[in-house]
Amino acid sequence: MPLLRLKEIRDMSSDERTKKLGELRTELTRLRTMVGAGGSVENPARIRELHRTIAQMLTISHEQKIGVARAKPKKTKKTKEKKSTKKQTKKKEEREENKK
Fold first, then answer.
1. What is the pTM of this model?
2. What is the CB-side half-sphere exposure of residue 5 using CA atoms within 13 A?
3. CA-CA 20 to 30 A from 91: which of 10, 60, 63, 76?
4. Which stretch of DSSP H or E encloses residue 54?
5. In a domain, 13, yes or no
């Protein structure tokens, strides 16, 4: 489960984001130090989650700084295969009728 969802990060102000970024970096540094010293971490996946969340926060900060808005994914259209199978079915039925 992510530490922060993208929507939450986007809704934060710049100051809040900077503050949270500092907290996450501090925690990541602490965990990496523990691993480097030979200690075991309670949740090793936490390091990956922290790293990913920090990257997302930096990306969103940069996007807002340069004024780029992420586009929402487009809805996919129906595939042509479904249409072609209907046509093929009609043609097949017509052929069968002609044979009779």
1. 0.66
2. 3
3. 76
4. helix 45-66
5. yes
Residue listed under structure tokens 């969802």: 5
Q: Is residue 77 part of a domain?
A: no
Q: Is residue 82 part of a domain?
A: no
Q: Are the C-beta atoms of residues 29 and 50 closer than 8 Å to each other? A: no
Structural domain that includes position 51:
6-72
**88: amino acid identity, one letter:** Q
Residue 10 has which token pair?
């986007």
Ranges assigned E (strand) in 4-97: none
Dump pLDDT digits (tens) for 21-76: 999 999 999 999 999 999 888 899 999 999 999 999 999 999 999 988 766 666 77
